């Protein structure tokens, strides 16, 4: 902590981060232990966060992230999209295929930014807002590879015909970006994605990750 920072705000943000990292919630005692402060301080932090709907407590007294964070989260996608667009545009133009940024939304993969190449005669139509299961399509599979630590090939995932007949996809996960699970990929009308395109996708994923750090 420095003279320019607020200890109370810092503790409140740490509470939110702790709650975001658990599916079953935390008790006041558990939060007190994790924060290294007494229970009275934790009670005050939770009461303040509850006023803003950022935290809720169930009947058993366990604290969980509240629905108020959704209102804040709605503003995240536009910021992420804006940061990713330069790399996506370059990727689409370089390989002549539709490029996309996909983020995890619950148990699904959600395309939040899509860029189509300007010089090709035809390309796969893909739209922002498209959803699909994480275990189908290159974008979701790349995210799952990152979760499982299977990164010997930078997490590159290659698929064919899983989401659209005749289309092949390649995607690589965003690595080293705190609080964001996602991938950058391309989709094209081809029997397979060649090695050069795969390498360019991995490079674009690194560029986007760097822009988001």
Question: How would you characterize this protein structure?
Answer:
The chain is α+β, with helices and mostly antiparallel strands and 213 residues long. It contains seven helices and eight strands, in the order αααββααβββαβββα. It has helices spanning 7-20, 28-35, 39-51, 68-73, 76-95, 138-147, 195-212, and strands at 55-57, 63-65, 98-105, 108-115, 131-133, 157-160, 167-173, 182-189. The longest helix is centred in the middle third of the chain and has 20 residues, at 76-95. The two termini are 21 Å apart. Keywords: DNA-binding, Transcription, Transcription regulation.
Topology:
Layout: H1 7-20, H2 28-35, H3 39-51, E1 55-57, E2 63-65, H4 68-73, H5 76-95, E3 98-105, E4 108-115, E5 131-133, H6 138-147, E6 157-160, E7 167-173, E8 182-189, H7 195-212
Antiparallel strand pairs: 1-2, 3-4, 3-8, 4-5, 6-7, 7-8
Question: Concise description?
Answer:
The chain is α+β, with helices and mostly antiparallel strands and 213 residues long. The chain has helices at residues 7-20, 28-35, 39-51, 68-73, 76-95, 138-147, 195-212, and strands at 55-57, 63-65, 98-105, 108-115, 131-133, 157-160, 167-173, 182-189. It is 42% helix and 21% strand.
Q: List the uncertain runs.
A: none
- Summarize the main sheet: 6 strands, antiparallel
Silhouette:
elongated
Strand order of the largest sheet: 5-4-3-8-7-6
Count of helix runs: 7
Give the termini separation.
Answer: 21 Å
Going by helix content, strand content and strand pairing, the class is: alpha+beta
Secondary-structure element string:
HHHEEHHEEEHEEEH
Helix content: 40-55%
| Gyration radius, in Å | 20 Å
Quick check: average pLDDT?
92
Work out the number of β strands. 8
Strand residues, percent? 15-25%
